[in-house]
Amino acid sequence: MKLFAVGLVVVLNLAFGSGEVASILKVCSRSDPKLSQCITNVVDMIRPNIASGDYGPGRKAPGLDPYPIAQMKIDHGASFKCNLDDVVIEGVSKFEIKKIRQNIPEKGFNITVRLPTTFVHGKYDLNMNILLLQLTGKGPFNLTLENTLVNFKIRYFLEPKDGKEYLKFHPIDLRFKFDKAQFYLKNLFNGDPTLELLPP
């Protein structure tokens, strides 16, 4: 979900109007008493741009839907190692903003969004030990997440440069949960098709 957080930071940068603002955007003032609604309206207006990453001439950002990730590594020692390659994440641009709460003293926002359905697919290479059982597998995988809630804590600061102030962001605190997940790992359990599908 870090990729989604990066995209959201890009949108906040654009919505606040750091420097010159793309013509497709309405600028939200940090002092606006209805700032949360303003940001929500901006996001809804530019949803296709969020998916493509194209905000106008000279204003490009990573597109969020689909979002490719060349490689991911998960290493928890000898008990669990997994490499993911050629990963593609789909459905992120369908997010719904559930809540935006501005924290003025700490210069930040608490944001909750909902992702109705998220699809992830790619290639995996897994080596996992559970008690006396060793699981290994290598091949294509897919993952479906239903009704995912993502909570962000985003903190910003103003950085002066050339007589102007630019909006910058601290590292993002991100947590998420989902109602249902379904995995399919081909070639796991020696390719037994009845065991390759991992239900929720």
The CATH architecture classification is Super Roll
Tally of structural domains = 1
- Measured by DSSP, the beta-strand proportion falls in over 45%
Assign an overall shape. elongated
Oligomer type: single chain
Radius of gyration: 20 Å
What is the CATH fold-level name?
Bactericidal permeability-increasing protein, domain 1
Structural class: alpha+beta
Number of helices: 4
Helix percent band: 10-25%
CATH class equals Alpha Beta
End-to-end Cα distance: 20 Å
Please give the largest β-sheet: 8 strands, antiparallel
* Poorly predicted tracts of residues: 16-21
Q: How many E strands?
A: 8
Mean pLDDT: 77
GO cellular component, one term: extracellular space
Protein name: Protein takeout
Keywords: Signal
Organism: Culex pipiens (House mosquito)
Any overview of this molecule?
The chain has 200 residues and is of the alpha+beta class. The chain contains four helices and eight strands. The protein has helices at residues 2-16, 35-45, 47-52, 193-196, and strands spanning 67-75, 80-90, 96-103, 108-130, 133-161, 164-169, 173-185, 197-198. Strands 1, 2, 3, 4, 5, 6, 7 and 8 form an eight-stranded antiparallel beta sheet that branches. It is elongated. The two termini are 20 Å apart. The relative contact order is 0.15. The model is unreliable at 16-21 (pLDDT under 50).
Summarize the structure.
The protein is an alpha+beta fold and 200 residues long. It has four helices and eight strands.
